[in-house]
Design brief:
6-stranded antiparallel β-barrel, Elongation Factor Tu (Ef-tu), domain 3, YaeB-like fold, 3 helices, globular
Length: 247
């Protein structure tokens, strides 16, 4: 394919974020490895000028789901590597970066399907509300497109090494202190928080090399403005997770 005459060789394209994400996930640890693994993750996309014009989103209210093109802004590296170690393969097998969905990519671009929860304007800001996402707070959104089921869904598609969705989940229990703290939180500020926590920890957010090790270690995940502390329990019969505190 011929190079476009307006893009000189070696020059970078300039992309301007359409929106900035305000997410329940405040850092990378605990974020689902794919969108849709939790139905309780919510975020607001704060549309930036000059794109915050109501007419630019006319008709989007009829779309149940959206494609988001975004930047893995916390995974930007000066150099890229041709191979990565996907967590799905235990972190010990290498795959080509273009055969994976690793955030460590030449242009640090990501693609996710999310549920559209509607548009609202509040205090002068235009917000697009989403859920079932995998975006951390501050993620720049570079483009928004409606998901078209008849064109975007391919029932017989496959990927060899990742044919089925992750189904193995750990049992989750909440200690009395965590239950009391959850009960004291306003549900309108922290919607479906217990269900969100359950989904996040049940898929074991630890890096692959830590699984099966350091079982006594206490981990923390930042959801909204809260620190959720939990640990993994292995009684030799069944692995599970105990949520210790939510504060």
């Amino acid at each position: 394919m011929a190079r476009h005459p307006s893009i000189p060789a070696g020059e970078a394209l300039t992309l301007t974020p359409i929106a900035i994400t305000r997410s329940c996930f405040k850092d990378k640890f605990g974020v689902p490895r794919q969108p849709g693994l939790t139905r309780y993750a919510r975020a607001d996309l704060i549309v930036q000028p000059p794109y915050d014009r109501d007419e630019a989103f006319r008709g989007l209210e009829t779309a149940s789901h959206l494609w988001l093109i975004f930047q893995f802004h916390e995974a930007v590296r000066a150099e890229w590597r041709p191979v990565v170690r996907p967590p799905r393969l235990g972190g010990n097998r290498k795959m080509g970066v273009f055969a994976s969905r690793s955030p460590f990519r030449p242009n640090s671009l990501g693609l996710s399907v999310v549920r559209n929860e509607g548009i609202e304007r509040k205090d002068g800001q235009l917000k697009l509300k989403i859920r079932d996402h995998d975006l951390i707070d501050g993620t720049p959104i570079l483009d928004i497109k409606p998901y078209l089921p008849f064109a975007d869904s391919v029932p017989d598609a496959g990927l060899g090494w990742a044919e089925t969705p992750p189904t193995e989940r750990l049992g989750v229990s909440f200690l009395p202190e965590a239950e009391a703290q959850l009960a004291s939180l306003p549900p309108e500020q922290y919607p479906d928080l217990k269900l969100l926590i359950t989904d996040v920890v049940s898929y074991d957010p630890r890096p692959s090399f830590r699984r099966g090790r350091d079982e006594e270690r206490i981990y923390g995940a930042h959801l909204y403005d809260l620190n959720v502390r939990f640990r993994f329990v292995n009684d030799h019969l069944q692995k599970s997770v105990e949520v210790l505190t939510v504060c």
